[in-house]
Amino acid sequence: MKTQPSLDQLISIDGKRALITGAAAGIGKAMTARFAEAGAHLTLVDIDSETLAATARELTESGVAVTPHVVDVSDEDAVDRLWIELRENEPDILVNNVGIYPFKRFSEVDGAFYDHVMRTNLSSTVWMCRQMIDRRRDRGGIIINIGSTDGIRPAADELSHYSISKAGVIALTRSLAKAHARHGFRVNAIVPGAILPSGAKQVVQKMVDGGVGAVKIGAEYVRRTPLGRLGRSDEVARIALVLASELASYVNGAVIPVDGGFLAA
After folding, report:
1. What is the pLDDT of residues 45-74, one digit of tens each?
2. Residue 98 has pLDDT above 60, yes or no
């Protein structure tokens, strides 16, 4: 009789290479901590060189193998250059976490603004997935894309551009899961709800960036959510680790809400 692997063996990603975009703060940083705890070697990608260096330093001081890359993933050429640098060290696990959600009324969205949001949130995910699949076609791998509940049920009137981009991430995930499972890939998406920024300064900055509307949206979200609170970055990171591990060995093409029940309400 074949012995089933232990829980420790199933959750471990020891020795695996994991690349996380938007890794310097928030959900991305929470993922770096959980993936490191599970034994991964980390490739961290972010556009913010200062915050990325601080995150990499924290992990290195904890004994984690970390390679940081300052990259604007909204730039297709920059993504291509990154993967050239990664040659022979391509990740086993790719997490497309980077995303922006600037508030703007639909009537005020111009071409440059729309293009920036789409390139950052959706096109970057397309380009990163394309490189991962092309370079690991003979080995397979795990791809985790971070969508949003706004891609399924928009919560804010001033985030139509964001909702469009995240709906695209969900559609991309399902398409790749269907097309590339035969090549050894598992492709899944996490759709977080409203997630509380990790520190007090970040909370204040989000309020400043979004204005009074952002505060109202947050309050309304909590009111409509069965669990009655905002989520935490680590709560998303835990699900990402499950998807990256053998605990999710038969999970492919899934779109998993981490939203306190918002989509069910």
Report:
1. 999 999 999 999 999 999 999 999 999 999
2. yes
User: Do residues 103 and 210 lie in contact, with contact meaning Cβ atoms separated by under 8 Å?
Assistant: yes
Q: Which of 101, 162, 221, 250 is catalytic?
A: 162
Where residue 204 falls among pLDDT bands split at 50, 70, 90?
very low
Distance CA 187, CA 179 (A): 10
Looking from the CA of 154 toward its CB, the CA atoms found within 13 Å total 14
Q: Per CATH, which fold does 11-260 belong to?
A: Rossmann fold (3.40.50)
In whole angstroms, what is the distance from residue 132 CA to residue 128 CA? 6
- Residue 148 to residue 160: CA distance in whole angstroms: 12
- Spatial distance between the Cα atoms of 232 and 156, rounded to a whole number of angstroms: 20
101 is catalytic: no
pTM above 0.85, yes or no: yes
